[in-house]
Design brief:
single chain, about 180 residues, alpha/beta, Rossmann fold, four-stranded parallel sheet, 6 helices, 4 strands, about 40% helix, about 15% strand, globular
């Protein structure tokens, strides 16, 4: 079992300017979700960041809520929290795979997301993983999002000069030295 193993844990990231995190949780299993949120919020606050919490009906709605928030709000990072426990049908596989895949695709597009959606075989496994005094996977998801944010800010101003740039950066209008057209 994982309790006997030791793992290296990165030091907490630090930020020069404020960081705002959105926690999106699917509280289908309320007690498990509450523990995940407790772990995540404690870690976010320990890093000096602020957070907001929204609830969605299920794990499949988490990526959609994050996408909406990214397009319409000003969050720097996102934490996805929820729990999917294997049942008697293949619905478990669909929910696990599709929610994880969507979060991964959004991350590959540059969003700073920590995935704390538990995918487990039993309720007992979920309880241990969600408990802030045990495996604390809510905190793990929060710290993942915050580490990605720190990297994003570190590299945010750098450009290797590849890809497309807006016309305003590449083409000067005929005119004065400031690019203003002349008569």
């Amino acid at each position: 079992m994982a309790k006997t193993e030791t793992h290296y844990i990165l030091p907490r990231p630090s930020f020069d300017k404020p960081a705002k995190v959105l926690i999106v949780v699917a509280p289908y299993y309320r007690d498990i979700a509450d523990n995940l949120v407790a772990g995540a919020t404690a870690e976010i606050e320990a890093c000096g960041a602020t957070w907001e919490l929204v609830e969605v009906p299920g794990a499949l709605e988490i990526p959609t809520a994050i996408t909406i928030a990214d397009r319409r709000s000003n969050f720097d990072a996102f934490v996805a929290l929820g729990c999917v426990i294997r049942g008697e049908t293949t619905h478990y596989d669909t929910v696990c795979n599709d929610s994880s895949r969507a979060l991964q695709m959004m991350g590959l597009q540059g969003l700073c997301i920590g995935n704390g959606i538990l995918t487990v075989e039993t309720r007992m496994q979920a309880e241990v993983r969600a408990d802030p005094g045990e495996m604390n996977k809510g905190a793990g998801a929060a710290v993942a999002a915050l580490h990605l944010l720190a990297l994003s800010r570190k590299w945010g101003g750098q450009s290797k000069g590849i890809g497309f740039k807006p016309m305003s950066e590449t083409i000067r209008l005929a005119g004065d030295n400031d690019g203003n057209p002349t008569a």
